[in-house]
Amino acid sequence: KLCPVSRGINSHCDPCQAQKEKTSWRPSSSCVFVVRKDQDIYVQTLRKLFNESHGIFIGLQRSEEEFAGKSRKTQLVQVSKNYRSVIRACMEDMHQAAVSARDPALHSQYSTQVSILSAMELIWNLCEILFVEAAVAGPLLLRLLDWVRLHVCDVDNMVREVLSSENPSKHELFWNVVDVFVLQGRMDEARHLLSKEASANPTSVNMCRILDDLMKKMPVPSLGNTQTLTEMELKWQHWHEECQRYLQDGTFASNSHMESICKILLGDENAILEKKELMTTWYHFLVTRLLYSHPTVKPMELRFYAQSSMDLFLGGESSPEPLDTILMAAFEFEMHQVIKECSIALSNWWFVAHLTDLLDHCKLLQSHNLYFGSNMREFLLLEYASGLFSHYSLWQLGVDYFDHCPEYGRVYLELHIERIPLNTEQKALKVLRICEQRQMHEQVRSICKIMAMKALRNNRLGSALSWSIRAKDAAFATLISDRFLKDYCEKGCFSDLDLIDNLGPSMLLSDRLTFLGKYREFHRLYGEKRFSEAAKLLLMLMTAHIAPCSFWMTLLTDALPLLEQKEVIFSAEQTYELMRCLEDLTAGKSDKQKFQDDDVETMKVEMLRLALARNLARVIVKEGTLEGS
Amino acid sequence: MASPAPPGHAHCPASLSLLARRRRAAAANQQRRRQAGGRSRREVVVVAAARAMEDVCAKFVSQKVSKARWRPLPAAALQPPDIFATGSWDNEDNRISIWSVGDLGSVGLNGEYQGEPQLLCDIRHSGDVMDMQFLDQERVVVASSTGNVTIFRHHQNNQTLSTNQRWEKAHYHVDRSASCGGAACTGVICNNPEVVTVGEDGRINLLRADQKDAVRTIDNADSSTLHAVTFLRTTEILTVNSIGQLKIWDLRQQRNEPSQIFSLTGDRVPLHCVDRHPNQQHIVATGGQDGMLSIWDIRQGTMPVSLLNAHEAEMWEVHFHPSNPDHLFTCSEDGSLWHWDTSTSVAEKPSFLHQGGRSTTYFSHNTINQSLVSAWLSNDPTKDRMEITNLIPNQTLSVNSLDILGPCLVYGTDAEAIYVNRHLFA
Known about the structure:
Helix content of chain A: 55-70%
Shape of chain B: globular
Strand order of the largest sheet of chain B: 1-3-28-27-26-25
Main location (chain B): nucleus
Largest sheet of chain A: none
Helix content of chain B: under 10%
Structural class of chain B: mainly beta
Distance between the termini of chain B: 16 Å
Structural class of chain A: mainly alpha
Number of helices of chain A: 33
Largest interface: A-B, 42 and 47 residues
Distance between the termini of chain A: 100 Å
Organism (chain B): Dromaius novaehollandiae (Emu)
Number of helices of chain B: 4
Strand content of chain A: under 5%
WD repeats (chain B): 264-306, 308-350
Number of strands of chain B: 31
Protein name (chain B): Nucleoporin 43
Oligomer: heterodimer
Subcellular location (chain B): Nucleus
Largest sheet of chain B: 6 strands, mixed
Mean pLDDT of chain A: 84
Low-confidence stretches of chain B: 1-40, 104-113, 346-372
Low-confidence stretches of chain A: 1-27
């Protein structure tokens, strides 16, 4: 069971205490990890890791089932290697930062990160060998050897020092280096050094030659299918017996160094354990032990050797640390245990989320369901992506992770995306695009509404209207249209003409907006002296009930100048309609309201009535004349 | 000026060269195919560029990159550009950074060392970097989401950046003095010493690099958000806004009205970027919210000459190649960067007639340059085949900005990486 609560508890740990623990760590040996909730999200250098691995993650999801069988495995191994190379690149950057940091606190912080990253890569690499590639007996050992060589680099400095000295064979650490090479199965390098010893020390020439011969003849499992396991085991048996013979002969008796090497070649546990200091870790011991005693170890046998190697190596002196537990779980093929331990030990969700996803793509985790959420892959991806969303800037990465969580991803995204602060329109557009691509209509509406409200508060009516049109938010469009009309009534002219003149089909979003657009069209027609069209439109606005009743008086007042034109514009029928509109408006009002209306209003009505009557008179004459002629 | 056709290219018709590469249909474009007033709308075929990727070097920079700009070259320079500036956005701590892609002494064995960009210096910037333009070799003008416009000076002798001039809240909403009254400045364009800025407040500012106060401000120039600005001539500017309009402003006139308004019909799709053809000033390209590339001929009509279905999301930037305007580059929110090449379609015509003799090839380039009809304006789809290459095969997050100078391309993404391609036409 994954226990997120433990994070919560650990996150309260005293930072000073944590600092002390950090500084006492020995790099690249077993570590204690201090855990704080998603603290790693805020490490600047790690942003590279998040961003670059995001690309790999997306690639992996897209590559789904493109290949089958063996090429699929090759592809997955490649993906795994890509992840590791990103970890490595990040580690190098962090190392650079640590080297160039002058502040000791900062330096130790970076060093800590380096050791965490290195531990992550170590675990990932082992998982790659055991689970993703699922190396079989034979190649398995070669992979494990590569793994040890790549990660045990404490001795590298020593090797460099000896090799660069003038006379390596006289160097006090000479035999240590030879031992390191032998322990890591780097036979060619060991033989190279032996030849130096032989040329420098004539008395041991013979011994060197024999040892060299043994090393040369040592059978190694092949990567291809060139030899069967039985062939290999047979060869191994012969070689082993030959080594045994030389040891019993006392061939190397005069040189304790060479004798111990011969014992190592024979897989003598005590001889190997004597070189504990050169191996530094129990898993190095394990691999060396396997190399010289069980080179054709099968994956399922690993657990026994691993357990005994750890017990022998630690010898009851120290208890296993988290890293040891994790590696042990991997050797035991307890994938879920690995993920669980990593979740507890590491201070980020990045590692477990990506590793679990990869293992899931290898079809290794399918049987496992949690009793909460959907499954482990999704649970971890959700946790990781939620962490990204809590970051000021990394939220964009989180979106794609949610997309690949089939069960709860969408809900999480919906909840998170609404909480992103929208400080510029550009950012709002980016968030909107995310929502629109996923048909999240509710969120689209809410974002547009937020932006429209902001614009409205800033007195940017044009922008506000654009946003509400984009959201298809009729109510808000009505509200803004009313603001426009109110402004018009107060100032006598329209603002934001470039917008209102270009509403196009979006005008139909709300009745009020339609009215605004049409009313503005009336003004344009009037301005262009297209009076009869203007008159027709004006009347239509009232008779078709597009105009709100509160605005009728303004419209009727707008009709005044048309009625007073020299030329007759309204036909008799239109004039009757206008009169009806006026009467509807006045009749609708109660006496009380009439009483309250000021004189201006009453005067307007009187003027209108007069103008209408005069127009009617003129039009009757005109129409009568026209018909008569 | 001759278009840099790849070697051997002139000998085979463009159709063959298209076939030779992996042909990929433009990603299914779900957008409605609108008719632009009876004008042509060309469908585009995009070729994924495998070869182009080899020359690209990338660097993850731990900040989302909103702008990338090459430093202009001195007039007589022969070498390709080697310094560029980037700006970040949506960070708690945004920065302006100057990068070098020069060899910095570490030339490889074959002399073709292609190191990743090296950071020369950077400086804090308050607010998102919304736009950025080099004023000259040393100074860069930066538009901020806080409404500030700042000129930074790059001191090349000691590799530092400093603030040279700042206009606090050049763009603002109702109350300029309020602590949060600034409105994002969305676009800036310079023609030393003049700087023009536009913003979310619909305001246009005309500034001079050496003057503290704005030379001229047009309040309420636009009722919607202005997204980008560019110079049409020295006294005229072009702006695009969020309701699909392209406006020309004559700065000599005191009237606070545009001298001309162009617009997309119907849907009022917001326009995000604008660029003008470097030689033929009447040709203007804009990019919209739906990823559409519009080509306008501002001498005629009020609608675009052609609309090209392009990206699947907002087109953030469009740039004609400054010295080779048959080439155009666009980048988008959908994470793609396209190279539009009209030179091949024109160049092939003579070779069709003459079956591609060597001498005719050179000759044909000369005739193209003399021809008055630009390939961008021609709207006969059978005659012109545009070659379009997607320079980013595995796209993920938005490509926010690109800049092109000589053979060099730089672009920055929301995946916090900058990419440089120094052999674009190789």
